[in-house]
Structures are given as structure tokens and as C-alpha cells.
Amino acid sequence: MQRGASPFNIVAVALGLAFLYLPIAILVVFSFNASRLVTLWGGWSLTWYRELLHDDAVLEAAWISLRVASLSATAATILGTLAAIALARMGRFRGRLLFSGMIYAPLVMPEVITGLSLLLLFVAFNVDRGFWTIVIAHTTLTMCFVTVIVQSRLVGFDRGLEEAAMDLGCPPFKTFLTITLPLIAPAIAAGWMLAFSLSLDDLVIASFTTGPGATTLPIRIYSEVRMGVKPEINAVCTIMIAVVALGTIAASLMAKRGAMRRDREALGAQV
Amino acid sequence: MASRADKPTRRARVIVLVPYLWLGLFFLAPFAIVLKISLSQAALAQPPYLPVFDLAAGWAGLKEFAAQLSADSFKLLASDPIYLLSYFKSLEVAAVSTAILILIGYPLAYGIARTARAWQPLLVMAIILPFWTSFLIRIYAWINILQRDGLLNEVLLRLHVIDAPVAWLSSDTAIYIGVVYSYLPFMVLPLYATLEKMDESLLEAAADLGCPRWKAFWLVSFPLSLPGLAAGALLCFIPIVGEFVIPDLLGGSETLMIGQTLWTEFFSNRDWPVASAIAIALLLLLLVPILFYERLQQRSLEGGR
User: What is the pLDDT of residue B305?
Assistant: First the structure.
């Protein structure tokens, strides 16, 4: 569908993007404000970033969050990819309906329910709550997002490639490693990144499943934000936005280069 | 090929079993525990509820355990208007926000789908990018803007639209702004996905037959985009009903949304049975939309189209 955009279409897109980006832009600009007041512009300054460097509580929380996010994203990517392969390639296995139900339900399940139920599970089995319970909780939540991303890629690509390899006598596992895995690799990488950022972002489930000594960055930010706006928080947020923006740009550049290489190879194969 | 895929080998069974067991243990089983605790009674103990299930006591212990279960928490939910008002408030916020999201998200998704192909990935990326930044940050950004001496009041005062600062924060308006802002990508992306796939020749055919553009939209594009619209609406509506962070940071304290009520019962009142009963009731309330969403997902991801 591409019959040229009408002025109405262009205005809709422009307004929509302005709505999405203006608050973030304001937040970033005011993190460089010399004045402590949010409305008063006191000139450019890095004061709040310097103060941040001495805020051990925030730095400690950020470190915990990064560790939770990388561990849970990795576990979620492995589990989620397995689940995606099961759903996309295994046909009808016993208990499939329940399985796909358990995959799609967490995507929309209100966080308070997921958080509460996991906490009660940990209490019932007398598990000490802390770092590892958050990792388990985040793995459970984010693996479903990984599954959906990888599954849509598995459904989308030409299965003839796999079939050709297997018809030529390639064993299924080797076919998976040499044909399927490289083809779904971008989706797996995207899944990992999504899982990572969801974990880094989560407040509600982490609040339920955390224990002493495991204060993640969102829990920390939340307790500060409840007391009011502070310029230091603007600085923390700006750094997080910068990290995410750089990561996304790097990933999309890599994906683009990969796509160009694939296109060239496909062209070469045709000639 | 089909026979090869349908006959699971041992390795294939492992592929299914590992995520299956994980989700069974950490997603499904906890609901049984929530149900059990919702039928317990609050107690000054560790953990703060009774009865505690004792496996060592065997069958007799199980019978005694069953005898002590009670529906008190659910009776409380039904009798105290605080809870019912909370549920209604949540449904109202979710329904109105979803309607606003459709009104804003549809033109946006439609606009993106109609721009030149080369621009579309960039615009989609622009929609997704804020979603990758922290949810909490985006809500916090709005506190900056909406507070009493915030930017919105400043701008409106300078423009002489208002004479005195308006209390935007701690109101339903602030909740709606925060919810719509946070969930916009969830509405736009599924809509865009269906609109983008639409066969343009259908619209051309309509135009050739003399159908005006708005009528072609209404008779062709809109009906074909309904699956995306349904997916987007459910993807927003269901989590918004249970939303906690947005109403807690932006909303007032008169009527709490159900997610906040659950949070308070759990963390402040330490009444785990009532918190569990609220969760069970919320789950039952959302069961139909969740099942409907699952069917949509299955159709779009497993139907091959």
C-alpha cells in the first residue's frame, strides 16, 4: 500500500512522533540544566552527572540491574528460541494448546498478577528472595517475547532451504545448525535485546520478587521519583536513553549490513 | 517432510520439554498457589497466612488443611465497595484509553503505511525506539511536564491560555496522558503490520470504479485492518486494566485502580489472602480478552499468514 501520502497522513505521522519524542527531549535537555528547578533554565552544566558519580546507591543498583538483565536475557533467549522451534516446527505434539497458551498469556498478563504469583511460589518453597529470584522472574516473563520474535521469523522464511538440505542427506540437527540458525540469528539477537531492555525496565515484578540487598535500578528510581523530581534522576535517565539509542542504532546498522550481504549473495547465486 | 516433522525424536522432545517445564513451574503452578492463598486467612505469622500446608502430615493433614480453607477474602471483595469501585475504575480507564489510543494510533499507523517504502523502516524504528527506553523514565518525563511549576503550566501561562497554574498531576487526565503515551507503540505496530500488507490494487480497483477515497477507506481498508485493530486494542486494554506504575505516579488518591489496590493490600496491609483474591478476580475478569488475544496470536503466528 503505497499510493503516496496525503497531507493528512503526513500531519498525523509528524504529530504522533512529536508526541512520542517531545517529553523525552525535554527530560534530556533538563538533565544538563545548571538550576535545580525544573522550569528555570540556568544554563548548560554537567553538575548532575558529577553528583551521580558519587551516588553509590544508584551506581550499585545500576550494576545489579545490568547483571540481572544480562543473565535473564541470555536464559530467556535460550528457552524462548527452543519454544519457538517447538511451536513453528514440531507440528502437533501433545499439550501444544496449553504450551502456546503459556507462551502468549504472559505477553498481556498484568504485571501485578505475575509478580504476586511468582513471589507466592518462592515463599511456598521457602526460597530466599534476592538476586536470583529476580533473574528467574525476568527469564519467565521475557522468554515469551523472545519466542514470538523468533517464531515469526521461523514462520516467515523459506522452508525449502531446510527441506533441500535434509533431502540431500543432512541430518536434522546439522541442518538446524548450518541452515536454520544463521537465518534466524537476527531474530534471536533482537529477542535478546528486547529481553535485556524489558528486564532493565521492570519495576513491578522485581519489587515483588526482590529481597534484601537486591535493589534494582527501577526500584531505586521509583523510590526517588515518589519523593519528587530531582535533576540527578534526569541525568540517570539520559544515560539510560543514550545507551539504548546507541545499542539500537548499532544493532540496526549490523542488521542492515547483514541484509545487504545476504542480498549480494542471493544476487550472486542467481547469476 | 510432514512425517519427519510430526514424528518427534528424543532430541525434539527435549526441545519442547525444557521450556514447557520452565513455564509450567514458574508461570502456571504459581496460579494454583495464588488460588490456595486467596482461600486462606491472614495471620500474624511468617508467612502471613493460615493454614500452612504441611506435606509431612499426609492425608490427615490434607483433610485438616481443606477444612480450614475459607472464602472470607472473596466475601470481603464483594461486600466492601472499595474493591468494586477499584475494578470499575480500572475497566473505565482501560476502555477510555484504548479508545483514545485507537483515535491517535490509527491515523499514525495509516500514515506510516502510506509513505514511500524507503521511509517506512525508519518511521517504524522511530515508533519502537521510545519503547526501548525505560517505561519508568517515560512516566517520569511527564511528571517534569505536568507538575504545578512544570513546563505545561509555564507555556500555557505565557500564552495566556490560563490565568493560574492548573493541577494537572494527581488527576485522571494525567493517568490518561501517561497511559496513552506509554502504550501508543503497542497500538501502532500491530495496526501497521496489517495495513502494510494490504493489497493496494484493491484500493485502485475501488478508485477505478469511481469510489471516493474516504469511502474506499471505509469500505476496503478499514474492514481489512480489523485483525490488527483487535490485536492492538487487546494488547493495550488487558495490561492497562492491571496497570500500577502509571496511576501510582501520575494519578490522584481518591479512587485507586485495581493494580494499586492489590499493591497496597500486599505491601502496606500485608494481607496476602486479600491480595491473592484480588489477583484471582482480576484474572477471571480478563480471562475472556486474554483467550481472545491468544486466538489472534495463534492465527497470525501459526496460520502462516
Answer: 38
The C-alpha cell at A46 is 554537567
CB contact under 8 A, B132 and A233: no
> Any idea how long chain B is?
305
What chain B residue is nearest to A208 in terms of C-alpha separation?
B267
User: In chain B, which residues fall in CATH 1.10.3720.10?
Assistant: 80-302
Query: How many residues are given for chain A?
Result: 271
Structure pTM? Answer: 0.84
What residues in B contact A15, CB-CB < 8 Å? 108
Compute the count of residue pairs across chains A and B with CB atoms less than 8 Å apart: 291
Measured between beta carbons, the chain A residues lying within 8 angstroms of B15 are: 82, 85-86, 90
Interchain pair B104, A16: CB under 8 A: yes
Residue B246 C-beta-side C-alpha neighbours within 13 Å = 28
Nine-digit cell at A12?
498525523
| Ranges of H-type helices in B209-271 | 213-216, 222-224, 226-241, 245-250, 258-263
Partner-chain contact A90 B151, CB within 8 Å:
no
Instruction: Respond yes or no on whether ipTM tops 0.85.
Output: no
Q: Does A124 contact B33 at a Cβ distance shorter than 8 Å?
A: yes
Using one digit for the tens of pLDDT, what is the confidence trace for A197-256?
889 888 999 999 998 888 999 998 888 888 777 778 888 888 887 887 787 777 777 767
- CATH topology for the B80-302 domain: MetI-like fold (1.10.3720)
The model's pLDDT over A144-171, given as tens digits with 9 standing for 90+, comes to 999 988 988 888 777 788 888 888 888 8
Helix (H) or strand (E) holding B135: helix B135-146
The CATH number of A56-270, from 2.40.30.60, 1.10.3720.10, 3.40.50.920, 3.40.50.1470, is 1.10.3720.10
Tell me the three cell numbers of residue B42.
Answer: 491472614
CA B227 to the chain's CA centroid: 18
Q: How many CB atoms lie within 10 A of CB B28?
A: 15
Task: Please answer yes or no on whether A172 and B195 come within 8 Å at the CB atom.
Answer: no
Residue with cell 503515551: B181
**What is the rounded distance in angstroms from the CA atom of residue A62 to the CA atom of residue A54?**
13
> Is residue A81 left, alpha or beta, with left meaning phi > 0 and alpha meaning psi from -120 to 50?
alpha
> Domains of chain A: which residue ranges?
56-270
Three-state DSSP string of chain A: CCCCCCHHHHHHHHHHHHHHHHHHHHHHHHHCECCCCCCCCCCECCHHHHHHHCCHHHHHHHHHHHHHHHHHHHHHHHHHHHHHHHHHHCCCCCCHHHHHHHHHHHHHCCHHHHHHHHHHHHHHCCCCCCHHHHHHHHHHHHHHHHHHHHHHHHHHCCCHHHHHHHHCCCCHHHHHHHHHHHHHHHHHHHHHHHHHHHHHHCCHHHHHHCCCCCCCHHHHHHHHHCCCCCHHHHHHHHHHHHHHHHHHHHHHHHHHHHHHHHHHHHHHHHC
The DSSP H or E segment spanning B207 is helix B200-208
Residue B184 CB burial class (10 angstroms; 0-12, 13-18, ≥19): buried
- Report the alpha-carbon distance of residue B229 to residue B102 in Å, rounded: 8
